[in-house]
Amino acid sequence: MAHVKGPDHSRRKERSRQAILEATRALVAEEAYEKVTVEAIAARAGVGKQTIYRRWPSKSAVVFAALLALSEDPDGQSVALPDTGDLETDLKLVMRATAEEFADPSFDRLIRALNTEIANDAELAAEYREKLAQPLEEAKKARLRSAQEVGQLDADADLDLVLEVLYAPLFQRWLHRSGPLTAAYADSLVDATLRAFGPRTGVGSTPGELGPVDS
Amino acid sequence: MAHVKGPDHSRRKERSRQAILEATRALVAEEAYEKVTVEAIAARAGVGKQTIYRRWPSKSAVVFAALLALSEDPDGQSVALPDTGDLETDLKLVMRATAEEFADPSFDRLIRALNTEIANDAELAAEYREKLAQPLEEAKKARLRSAQEVGQLDADADLDLVLEVLYAPLFQRWLHRSGPLTAAYADSLVDATLRAFGPRTGVGSTPGELGPVDS
Amino acid sequence: MAHVKGPDHSRRKERSRQAILEATRALVAEEAYEKVTVEAIAARAGVGKQTIYRRWPSKSAVVFAALLALSEDPDGQSVALPDTGDLETDLKLVMRATAEEFADPSFDRLIRALNTEIANDAELAAEYREKLAQPLEEAKKARLRSAQEVGQLDADADLDLVLEVLYAPLFQRWLHRSGPLTAAYADSLVDATLRAFGPRTGVGSTPGELGPVDS
Amino acid sequence: MAHVKGPDHSRRKERSRQAILEATRALVAEEAYEKVTVEAIAARAGVGKQTIYRRWPSKSAVVFAALLALSEDPDGQSVALPDTGDLETDLKLVMRATAEEFADPSFDRLIRALNTEIANDAELAAEYREKLAQPLEEAKKARLRSAQEVGQLDADADLDLVLEVLYAPLFQRWLHRSGPLTAAYADSLVDATLRAFGPRTGVGSTPGELGPVDS
DNA sequence: TTCTAAACGAGACGGTACGTCCTGTCTTACC
DNA sequence: GGTAAGACAGGACGTACCGTCTCGTTTAGAA
Question: Rounded CA gap, A176 and B118, in Å?
Answer without folding.
Answer: 7
